[in-house]
Amino acid sequence: MPQIPQAGDNFMPLKQQKAFGVSQRMIVSPGNEQEGIFHMPGGQSSHPLTPYYGEGHDDWVAAQPSAFLPGDAQWVLTLSPSTSPHN
Description:
The chain is mainly beta. Helix content is about 5%, strand content about 15%.
């Protein structure tokens, strides 16, 4: 992710330094999950060549929270056992 100056220091809820920062923030009250918020500085993909690698970074920098609950599924991965006797 690009280096972008942000507020925060060692003794603040927004704890971060030049080479260190939080990986995610979740704020949710049990029973009120629909009102919860989620912050993540990058996408869930850990591979920089995937289209989702930097997903959410702009919102992180601008302190724009994402919804805590997931949205509708956009992709489905189905795993099936192999029928090969050599596994």
